[in-house]
Amino acid sequence: MCAITKARGGLLLRYSRMNSAGSLIGESISADCSSLVCVEVSLFVYSSFS
Questions:
Q1: What is the span of the domain harbouring residue 44?
Q2: CA 45, CA 34: separation in Å to the nearest integer?
């Protein structure tokens, strides 16, 4: 019983670590995507007006 609780706690700890790392990765990916979208939109506007 105690070992099951300990294992579950370790899994929860590992999951929360993975979750925080995943959210960090997701934030950096979304930041990269938004900057890419900004670059593409500015390039499109520049090419359509030039």
A1: 1-50
A2: 16
CB half-sphere exposure, 15, CA atoms < 13 A: 6
The whole-model pTM stands at: 0.37
Whether 44 shows a pLDDT value over 60: the answer reads: yes
> CA 31, CA 36: separation in Å to the nearest integer?
9
Helical spans, DSSP H, in the chain: 2-49
3-state percent helix, strand, coil for the chain, nearest multiple of 5:
95, 0, 5
Distances (CA, A) of 16 to 8, 13, 24, 46: 12, 5, 12, 44
